[in-house]
């Protein structure tokens, strides 16, 4: 299960580019306001299907939990709404792995999976890769998911120093 | 342009790219080996785009400025001083995940 919007999509598809077919089926989760990501994903999966004939994927949409420049108070409300919306989706898919890289939309999905883990319904490994844009500071999603993810990956050494529990693999996109 | 699927063709034909500091835009441009001037959007929340532009500039890969200094930058730029940009390594990420799931 993967979630992203806009520029994050390009990054996450690069992350996926070297994954083997063990990471299948892939369920993509998009914000309902995102128009361009769907095209990028379909194109990516189409190319993939040329090499791996049994490639499977699906696309789900959830309400975007935060718009750019949205105020803090309304962000909390829309995020709560998104968590409620995500729970049935996460419950239905019961992913083994959630991979995300930063847009606010991914926080409710990850938190809903974390919750399902606490309730012993499904233990999902949450892998968060902070965007390459983040050199010195974490995004808001990153700051939250640093505590909820199983593996938190950063792409610049300054962040590794500031967030010692993170994993630094160099630039991976 | 808003709904174009890919700017790859346009990028290929360009001699100079002026772009916002979005990761996709910067990386795609740098990977095609095109000289890049990054313009920062002052209105985005906490302006995180600035970090990447600054780092890429520090490492010598791009020029950067904001909307008001663009003309000045264009007038005084030296594109030959820009360094070639090494690609990222998603295979390291795949390798890492494989280890996590015991697939290696």
UniProtKB/TrEMBL annotation, chain A:
InterPro entries: Oligosacch_biosynth_Alg14 (IPR013969). This is UDP-N-acetylglucosamine transferase subunit ALG14. It comes from the Eukaryota. It is found in: Endoplasmic reticulum membrane. One of its GO terms (molecular function) is N-acetylglucosaminyldiphosphodolichol N-acetylglucosaminyltransferase activity. GO terms for biological process: dolichol-linked oligosaccharide biosynthetic process. Gene3D superfamilies: Glycogen Phosphorylase B. The gene is Alg14. Belongs to the ALG14 family. It is a single-pass membrane protein. The keyword Transmembrane helix applies. One of its GO terms (cellular component) is UDP-N-acetylglucosamine transferase complex. It comes from Loxia curvirostra. Keywords: Endoplasmic reticulum, Membrane, Transferase, Transmembrane, Transmembrane helix. Forms with ALG13 the active heterodimeric UDP-N-acetylglucosamine transferase complex.
Automatic annotation (TrEMBL), chain B:
Signal peptide: none annotated. InterPro entries: Alg13-like, Glyco_trans_28_C. It comes from the Eukaryota. GO terms for cellular component: endoplasmic reticulum. SUPFAM superfamilies: UDP-Glycosyltransferase/glycogen phosphorylase. The keyword Transmembrane helix does not apply. Pfam families: Glyco_tran_28_C. It is found in: Endoplasmic reticulum. GO terms for molecular function: N-acetylglucosaminyldiphosphodolichol N-acetylglucosaminyltransferase activity. Its EC number is 2.4.1.141. GO terms for biological process: dolichol-linked oligosaccharide biosynthetic process. The keyword Glycosyltransferase applies. Keywords: Endoplasmic reticulum, Glycosyltransferase, Transferase. Residues 1-90 form the Glycosyl transferase family 28 C-terminal domain. It is an enzyme of class 2 (transferase). Belongs to the glycosyltransferase 28 family. This is UDP-N-acetylglucosamine transferase subunit ALG13. The gene is Alg13.
